[in-house]
Amino acid sequence: MSTMPGTLTNVTPDIDAPTIPNATIYHGDRLLPLKNVLLSALPPVTWLMSSRTRKYANKVYNIIITVHKVNYFIINLSFSMNKIITFAITFTKKSKRMNKQKRFLLQESEIPTQWYNIQADMPNKPMRPLNPATKQPLTAEDLAHIFSLECSKQELDTEHAWIDIPEEVLDMYKYYRSTPLVRAYALEKALDTPAHIYFKNESVNPLGSHKINSALPQCYYCREEGVTNVTTETGAGQWGAALSYAAKVFGLEAAVYQVKITLQQKPYRGILMRTFGANVTGSSMSTRAGKDIITRDPNNSGSLGTAISEAIELATTTPNCKYALGSVLNHVALHQTIIGLEAEKQMEMAGEYPDMVIACFGGGSNFGGIAFPFMRHTILEGRKTEYIAAEPSSCPKLTRGEFRYDYGDEAGYTPLLPMFTLGHDFKPANIHAGGLRYHGAGVIISQLIKDGMMHGVDIPQLESFEAGLLFSRTEGIVPAPESCHAIAATIREANRCKESGEQKVILFNLSGHGLIDMPSYDSYLNVDLSDYNISDEEIRKYLAGVPKLD
User: Fold this and answer.
1) 313, 424 in Cβ contact below 8 A?
2) What whole-number percentage of the chain has pLDDT above 90?
C-alpha cells in the first residue's frame, strides 16, 4: 500500500487523540490545550522535513503521544481517586452519625444477679463498729436489735465478694432496671471539651432516684424475718419516698422522719410518701430525742443526724419494728452496686472505660454504688481510675473532717462508727441539697479515703446549681440538687481536659431528677440562694464533742 510523500512511517496519528478541555479543572495544567494543538498540527508538516529530521520528529511525536496518554491516565486516575476519597469521607461521616449512640441499655436477662461486696477485696478491711457502752466490736446479733438480721450480717461480711440478690428483689428491680448509660454529647459540645462524658441515669425509675435499690431488699429482709413495721429518716425525701413504696410492696407499715427544713423546702416529697401510705413527721418534733434536741436549741432546723435519732428511738420502742437506713452503712452501699455493675457492662458496649468515676456524696450510698464495681479492678488488677466524691462545701467531712469513732446520729443511739466526721452535733447549713447534709462518711468510704484510693472535692451551692442548669439546658434532664454536685465536679474535670487537650473518659452518676425540687431552682433563678462557708473554728468546736476512746 503506497503512502503519501512526507508521511511518517511507524507513526499512526490518533485522530481521536485525547483533547481534554476541562483538564485544567482537575490539575491546573494550562499547557494541556496547547499540547493538543501541537499533536494535531505535527503530522501534516512532516512532509517538509528531511529524512533524518523526520526520524527525530517521529521519536518526538511518539514521546509526546506517550507522555500525553500517561498524563491523561493520571488525570483520570486522580479524578477517580478523588471520587473514591469523597465517597469514603461521606460514608465515614454517615457511619459516624449512625454509630453516635446516645443510650446503652441492658436486656432483662443481662441485669446482674449478685451485688458486689468490696469489703472482701479491700487490702485494709474497714474497722468494726463499736458498742457505745462497752467500746467492744459489735456482732451481727448486736446490730440486729436495730436492723434486720440479714442486713446486719451483710454489714460485717468481709469474706464474700458476691452476694446473691433475692429472686423477689430481682423481680422488682426489673420494673425499672436496667437504667440507661447515656453519652452526654450536648454537654460535651457546650463545654467544648475533648473529654467523653457518660452518666448513669438513675432518675428514670418510678421513684426518681437510686434510693429504691436498697429500700427493696431492706424491706424484703424485714418481711422475711416477720417484721411488720419499719422506720427511717430522710433528708431531701428521696430515701423516704423509696422506703414508703418498698414497704407497701412487701406489706409493711412505714414511719418516716423527714428533716424539718427540707419538709418545708420540698413539701411534695412528704405528699409522695403519704401517697404510698407512710406516716411522715417533720424532725425534730415528736420523740424523746427530738424533744431534747429542740429544747437545747429551739431554732434547730433539723439534720439527718437528728432524724436518725428519732427513727431509731421509734424502732427500738415499737414491737416488731426495725430501722432501715438509706446511706452510710456497708449493706446499703452493697445493694447500690447494682448501678456500677450495670455500668461496667454498658461501658463495654460503648467501647470505653472510665478514667474518672464521679458521684455526689452525702453518706456514700450512690458513690459506692457507681464506684465500687470499677474500684475492684483498681484493687485486683491495678487499673488506673480516679474516684471523686463531690460533697457540699458547707458540709466538708471528706476534705476537712477527721477520722474518728463517732455516732451516726445526734442523740448517740447508733453504734460508734469509724468515719471521717465533722462531729455528730454538727449543724449543717440549710442548703437545698438536703440529702447531702450529713456530718459523717460511710465506714467503707472512710477507709478508702485513708488508703488514698479516692478523694473528695467541695462544691459551693451556687456552682452546683449553675452546673444543674447547664445540664438541664443541654441534656434535657433537670437533676436533683444533690446530683448537681456530681455534675459540677464533672464540668471541672472536663474543663481541665480542655486545657490539657486530654481525651479522658468521665463517668458520673445522675442519682436522681429534680422535678420535685423546683422550688430550689426557683430560688436560684430568683437569686435568692447563697453559698455557705464553715470556719475551721466551727469545725474544731463540733469535733470537740466526738467521743474520746482510750
Assistant:
1) no
2) 69
Please provide the average confidence, as pLDDT, over all residues in the chain: 87
Spatial strand order of the sheet with 253-259 comes to 279-283, 253-259, 229-234, 321-323
Measure the CA dihedral 265/269/274/277, to 10°. -150
DSSP string, 504-547: -EEEEEE-BB-TT-HHHHHHHHTT--------HHHHHHHHTTSP
Grid cell for residue 449: 479515703
| 30-62: burial string, b at 16+ Cβ within 10 Å, e else | eebeebbeebeebbeebeeeeeeebeebbeebe
Buried b (16+ CB within 10 A) or exposed e, 7-20: ebeebeeeeeebeb
User: What is the distance, to the nearest Å, from the Cα of residue 170 to the centroid of all Cα atoms in its chain?
Assistant: 23
- Cell output for 410: 445526734
pLDDT digits (tens, 9 = 90+) for 31-71: 455 555 555 555 555 555 566 666 666 676 677 777 767 76
DSSP for 224-255 reads HTT--EEEEEESSSHHHHHHHHHHHHTT-EEE
Residue 299 above 90 pLDDT? no
pLDDT tens digits along 468-502: 999 999 999 999 999 999 999 999 999 999 999 99
Which of 128, 168, 133, 136 has the alpha carbon at shortest distance from 152? 128
Tell me, rounded to whole angstroms, the distance of Cα 537 from its chain centroid: 35
Is a pLDDT exceeding 60 seen at residue 249? yes
